[in-house]
Input
Amino acid sequence: GILIFRKWPSSTKISNDSVNMVEGPSSLNSTFDLDSLKIQENIGMGRYGSVARGTLNGFSVAIKTFAFENKQYFQNERDIYSLPLMDYPCLPKYFGSEERIGEDSQIEYLLVISYAPNGCLQDYLRNHTVDWPTLCKMMQTITQGLAYLHSDICKGDLVKPCIAHRDLTSRNILVNDDLSCIICDFGFAIQIAGPKCTQNGEQQDMDSLCLTDVGTLRYMAPEALEGAVNLRDCESSLKQVDMYALGLILWEIATRCSDLYQGLEVPEYKLPFEAELGKHPTVDQMQVLVARHKAHPLFPEIWKDSNPAVRALKETIEDCWDQDAEARLTALCVEERLAEIPVLWERYKAGLNIYGVSPTVNQTGSSQDNGP
Ligand code: ADP
Ligand code: MG
Ligand code: MG
Output
C-alpha cells in the first residue's frame, strides 16, 4: 500500500452535506471545523499516507491523507488522537479528521494535527548537528512523550489508557521550532486496558493479537525479530519493545552532538545499524546481527568517559536496548535519569574550570611575575 506522491488539488474538499463526516469519536470530540482548512504543499511521504502542510483558523497544521485501502491505519490513528487527555506538550495537537473525495474520485481520509516546522528527527539529524543542551532537550521531550503514552492517566472521569506505539523510529518523531520533539504516527499503536486491548477499532484479547509483524525492521527489538515476544504480560512486553527503539533513537541524536567530540568534526548521520548493514538490511541480516549476535550500535571512541555525564548517557542508552527485554528501563525511569545528566555535565564543567583549564594561573598577578 505505497501511495503515489501527487500534487494537492486546490479545492477538492467537498462540503459536509455531500459526504458524511467520518463516524467515530473524533467527530464528537473535535472542536475544530475543518471547512476552513487550507492545504498548501506536500511535505512528506510515509508508508501509508502523504503529508501536507496547511493552515486551519490561523494554526499551522499538517494534513495526513490516507487512501481508501489504508482506512484501518487512519481509523486507528484517529482513535488514538481522540482518546481523552491526549492534549499533551510532547504529542502533536489533534485538530480533527474527515472523509472526502480525492482528486481521483476515490474516498480518502484526512487527519489534521499541529505542524512541526523542523520535520522529522531523522531528516533534522541528517542536516544538522546538535549541541549538548539541544541533545538533552530532544532526549527529554521524546522520553516524556513516551512515558505519557505508556501511562494510564486519570483526571476526574477521564481516562487515558496505556498506549504502546509499536513503530518508534526517528521518522516518527517530529522536531518543533524550539527543537523540542513530539511523537507522531499512531497507525500501529495499541491501547491497553487491563487484559483487553484495542486496535483498528476492535477490542481483542491479548493472546489473539499478532504482535510481531509490525514496526520498522531496523528498529525491531531482538525478541520481535525472533517472534518471541512474551505474550503473558503483553502490556510490559509491548512497552519493552518501544523502549528498545527509544534506545536506538537516543543513540542517533547523541551521535550528532557536537559537544561530545572534543572539537573534532562530527561524523555524518547514520541510521542505527547502517554502519553494519547498510541502508537496506534484510530480515535475515537483522535477525543474525541483533538477535543471534546480540549486537547494538557502537558509541564513538572519542566520547569522553572521564565525564560522568557522558558515562551516564551511555549507560542509560544501553539500559534501553538491553537484550533482555525485562531488564530494560521504563520510560519513566529514563526520564528521571535524563534529568540528572545535565546536572552531571555542569558539575563536570565547573570542576574543569577550577582544576583543569588554566595554563596561566595568577595571570592577573603583579608585574613582578614578568621579571625584569
Ligand atoms: P506514515 O504513517 O505514512 O509513516 P507519518 O505520520 O509518519 O506517516 O508522516 C510521514 C512523514 O511526514 C513524517 O516522517 C514527517 O517527515 C512528515 N510529517 C508528518 N507529520 C508531520 C507534522 N505534523 N509536521 C511536520 N512534518 C510531518
Ligand atoms: Mg511514519
Ligand atoms: Mg505509520
